[in-house]
Structures are given as C-alpha cells and as structure tokens.
Design a protein that fits this description.
The chain is α/β, with parallel strands linked by helices. It has a single domain, classed as Class I glutamine amidotransferase (GATase) domain (Rossmann fold, 3-Layer(aba) Sandwich), CATH 3.40.50.880. The chain is about 30% helix and about 20% strand. It is built from 8 helices and 13 strands. The strands form 3 sheets. A 7-stranded mixed β-sheet has the order 3-2-4-5-1-10-11, sandwiched between helices. A 4-stranded mixed β-sheet has the order 6-9-12-13.
C-alpha cells in the first residue's frame, strides 16, 4: 500500500462472542461512533452456509442497530454491490469457506481497493480474520480450500479472534483440574515459529478500531500480543495499538 491508501483505511474489528448483553452493547456503541447516521451496510454472509438465515438472524439480533442492511447475496452483481456500498460488514463463521467464496466471486481485490480508499469495513470473527494479511491465525477447520491463504491485507499484523487464555480447566469429581492439553497460546507460538508476527489475540467482546494510522481497543476484555522470541504481552482495554500499524 502507498502512504495515501494507508491513511484512508477505516476498520472496526470484533472478536465475536457478542451474545452477552454487555458485549452487544459495546459493539453497538462502537458501531454508532464508527458510522455516519443512515449509512447503509452491505452484509457479506459467506462464512455461513445458509445466507438467508444468517441475514435474518443479524436483523433480529439487532447487531447493526437502526442502520439499513442489505446482503450481497441478494445483489445481482457482487462486485458492483461492493463499489456502490456505503459500508461493508463481513460476518463470522468458517474463515476457509468465507475466503474461498470471496475468491470465487472475485471480491478480494475489489474490497481491498475500496476499503483502502476509505470505505468503512466492519468484521466479526472470520470477518476480522479477513482484514489480516492471511487467514492463518483463524481457529477454524479447513472445511474447504481457498486458492490462497492471503486475505484483504488491510492491516500489517495477524489477529486471533475469540482468544482464550492459557490453561483450560475441567470439572472432575467436583473439582476443577487442568486439562493439560493444547492451548491457544501454543497454537499461536507455533504460527510464530514459521511466520513473521505479531499476532494480536482479542478476547470475546473486544473490538479494535482502526482509522488511518490510529488503532485502539474499544471493547471490554482486552487482548494479548504475541511476538516472535518474546513473552506474550497483556493489552488492557482502551489501549492504543497504533504502533502495530507502522
């Protein structure tokens, strides 16, 4: 990206897990501050198999509040729909299925171009993964193979949505004991052994707001930053992460 394009990107990236009232309220508050009133949102449901059901759930759940929302699968020309959209919202589900469909419909370059020039982009879960250089820090199973792992590359670092800390405990005979199995931290460390970082693990209910060269957490539960050869760093809610964009 050139310097002008970098300055124009505008992203709102959520970890998902917004079923709890406090998480939903955090997302709605962030969305209302992110979009201009009466902005029409173009929803991209390709991470889920049933597009109609997903759109219905988004509307009934009130995820986009009072903003008008239309789905790209109801548009005759998906590329033209991206070009004419006020804002783009990529939903969650399976990241491999989402990226496969984006490639199949020729939407990768179109979305990258228009978002880089200032069109607002919202993503949750798999939609957040798509904003990264690749989908390689997703939690999803590869149920279908996209032509490439490369995604929109709107930010120069990876995100792991739904990040969960360290050890997992299971109930056994009335007590909680360590699971002693593989953890999310181990999965991310394996990624860093083979790839350049950093990786930002964002917890349920956390949101990252990116505007130009500014990036700030605006959700509830903070994040953890992983870098190759370094101990993971705890990131508190409301932290400024603009340095990750340099």
């Amino acid at each position: 990206m050139n310097e002008k394009i970098k300055q124009n990107r505008k992203l709102l990236l959520g970890s998902g897990g917004i079923g709890e009232p406090d998480r939903m309220n955090a997302w709605r508050y962030a969305l209302s501050a992110f979009l201009q009133p009466k902005t029409t949102i173009l929803f991209i449901p390709y991470a889920i198999a049933d597009y109609d059901a997903y759109l219905k759930r988004i509307r009934e759940f009130g995820l986009c509040m009072d903003f008008p929302i239309v789905s790209i699968h109801d548009c005759a020309d998906p590329v033209q729909a991206i070009e004419g959209a006020d804002a783009v919202f990529v939903g969650g589900g399976n990241s491999f299925r989402l990226l496969h469909t984006l490639y199949r419909l020729g939407l990768i370059d179109s979305i990258r171009k228009h978002v880089s020039l200032g069109k607002p982009y919202m993503g949750i879960s798999a939609g957040t993964n798509m904003s990264c250089p690749t989908l390689m820090t997703t939690n999803d199973m590869p149920i279908i193979m996209p032509p490439s792992f490369n995604s929109f590359d709107l930010i120069p670092f990876q995100i792991n949505p739904h990040y969960m800390d360290g050890a997992i405990y299971l109930e056994k005979n009335g007590e909680y004991v360590p699971h002693r199995g593989e953890t999310r931290d181990l999965r991310i460390q394996e990624y860093l052994e083979e790839n350049k970082g950093p990786v930002l693990g964002i917890r349920e209910g956390e949101i990252l707001h990116v505007s130009g060269y500014s990036a700030k957490l605006c959700g509830l539960n903070g994040a953890k930053l992983f870098k190759k050869g370094e101990c993971p760093q705890e990131i508190a809610p409301e932290s400024d992460l603009s340095y990750l964009l340099q």
